[in-house]
Automatic annotation (TrEMBL):
Name of this chain's protein: ribose-phosphate diphosphokinase
EC number: 2.7.6.1
Highest taxon of source: Bacteria
Domain Ribose-phosphate pyrophosphokinase N-terminal: 9-123
GO molecular function: ribose phosphate diphosphokinase activity
Protein keywords: ATP-binding, Kinase, Magnesium, Metal-binding, Nucleotide biosynthesis, Nucleotide-binding, Transferase
InterPro entries: PRib_PP_synth_CS, Pribosyltran_N, PRTase-like, PRTase_dom, Rib-P_diPkinase
Length: 313
């Protein structure tokens, strides 16, 4: 029986349930029945409450820390494998632990590679994710990886703002490739921030490469964690004569004092996806859903159709 004639089943991990419901609705189906039992010490056990034998299933869950989010995905993959699912796709809108993608000093792990290995060992036969922190993480997997770009969501939004003298900016040297791709699509100028860190999440100094005077600036990045870089960049740009500064960040990690920094910053707006649920609302944070993007790709994967259009900036 062909995939097109066999209904795919979609199951949520706990923290991504709201997004999973949106994806299922956009896909044109309902979420499958899965329950999670929890012991008094915090150990938990997911259970598929319907037959998945021979099925293609999609398990939706971002794996941002704490470790329970990753552990739940692994347990669900293992349960699906042992329940004889035919195709098991881990749909991870945010692939956590991705910042540890190389050895930047001696005696440290390459966590992104380790996570890739255990996902495959647990039972994943395909990975669908969005805006990896480093493109080379795709090579850490032996199974197919569909790496989607949130630019397919963000570019229409930026165009709708109809900003004069638009300039795209990268908050650091590592994001310059992404910034150039956005600037090419929007036919705009580009500037780069050069930052020096005293230690992780602490910026000691920032310089600007390029001119922002009289410009409406849009910063682009794959994630916003403590928001220290973004808010510092916004302050520097306003000091250098920018008319306005907005930021586009795919994954709203938003830890520590991030919300307070954003509220008190010169950022006019922070646009994010719902790859990670917000801890609280903010007047400066606008959420653009990635549900339609994932639903479309999942349907194309199930029907064995091309998804190359979703890889184009």
């Amino acid at each position: 029986m062909s995939n097109a004639m066999t209904e795919a089943k979609i199951f949520p991990c706990t923290q991504s349930r709201d997004l999973a419901e949106k994806i299922a609705a956009a896909y044109g189906t309902k979420l499958g029945n899965v329950i999670t039992s929890t012991y008094s010490d915090g150990e938990f056990q997911p259970s598929f409450e319907e037959s998945i034998r021979g099925s293609r299933i999609f398990i939706i869950g971002s794996t941002n820390p704490g470790a329970n989010n990753l552990m739940e995905m692994l347990l669900m993959l293992d349960a699906a494998k042992r329940a004889s699912a035919r195709h098991i796709t881990a749909v991870m809108p945010y692939f956590g632990w991705a910042r540890q993608d190389r050895k930047d000093k001696p005696r440290v792990p390459i966590a992104a590679k380790m996570v890739a290995s255990i996902l495959e060992t647990a039972g994943a036969t395909r990975i669908i994710t969005m805006d990896l922190h480093a493109d080379q993480i795709q090579g850490f997997f032996e199974k197919p990886v569909d790496h989607l770009f949130a630019s397919t969501i963000f570019l229409p939004y930026v165009r709708s703002l109809k900003l004069d003298n638009l300039t795209i900016a990268s908050p650091d040297m590592g994001g310059s490739k992404r910034a150039y791709a956005y600037s090419k699509a929007l036919e705009s100028d580009v500037v780069i921030c050069y930052k020096q860190r005293a230690k992780a999440n602490k910026i000691s100094h920032m310089e600007l490469i390029g001119n922002v005077e009289g410009k409406n600036v849009v910063l682009v990045d794959d994630m916003v964690d403590t928001a220290g870089t973004l808010t510092k960049a916004a302050d520097v740009m306003m000091e250098r004569g920018a008319l306005s500064v907005r930021a586009i960040c795919t994954h709203p990690v938003l830890s520590g004092e991030a919300y307070e920094r954003i509220e008190n910053s010169q950022l006019q707006e922070l646009i994010v996806t719902d790859s990670i649920p917000l801890r609280k609302e903010s007047r400066k944070i606008r959420v653009v859903s990635c549900a339609d993007l994932f639903a479309d790709v999942m349907k194309r994967v199930h029907d064995n159709k091309s998804i190359s259009s979703k890889f184009i900036m």
